[in-house]
Amino acid sequence: MSNKLLSVKNLEKYFHDKTSETKALDDITFDLYEQEFISIVGPSGCGKSTILSILSYLEDPSNGEFKYSKDITIGYMLQDDSLFEWRTILDNCLIGLEINNNLNKETKAYVINLLKTYGLGDFINKYPSSLSGGMRQRVALIRTLAINPDILLLDEPMSKLDYQSRLAISDDIYKIIKKEGKTAIMVTHDISEAISMSDKVIVISKRPGKVKNIYNIKLSDKSTPINNRKSKDFNKYFDMIWRDLDVHL
Length: 249
Prior knowledge:
9 helices; three-stranded antiparallel beta sheet; six-stranded mixed beta sheet; alpha/beta; 9 strands; about 25% strand; Rossmann fold
């Protein structure tokens, strides 16, 4: 088994305002292993994105704990590509390195190689307005990879794309993450997306979000996300997760 990178135990989160307290998360427990791809699915408002915020230190847990097995670098990819229109594609991808004071010849060359490897070499000196939605998300992923993170946190990275683009970019993101040997946790509303891309799917209940089930996805002839949807085992997992989400068939 791969090395464990993250252990999450009994995580709880409360939000407060002047008059009330809301419990967003309750007893969230799971492990993440090196080069594993986990998806978190659940109904709107169940706290999926809050889990990512806690794991990236943007939010503090109210109770429970999470522990990384070593000093790690986190890359966080949001729903919106958030590209700066006045910066070239290359300059957009270098932002993280600039912020971390880690931009040099070697790290810049690494980013340029990523752009060329993943079909964006011709756009290095162009601006975001010249890219399709799917290409912009690919740039956003390369910007996230530029800092060479140990773990990628992906918050519904394809939610703003049309269906065809979403299928294509899910293949792109999956191939890039696997080829670069990265570990990832992705939040998504899309059951098919989760099954087709993931080694493990964590189903969260309605608020307060609890772990309702964890599925180890074992598809016959597992390959790319688009092809994985054709697996004979795909519908079995889809039906189980669909029922977990309390969606009536």
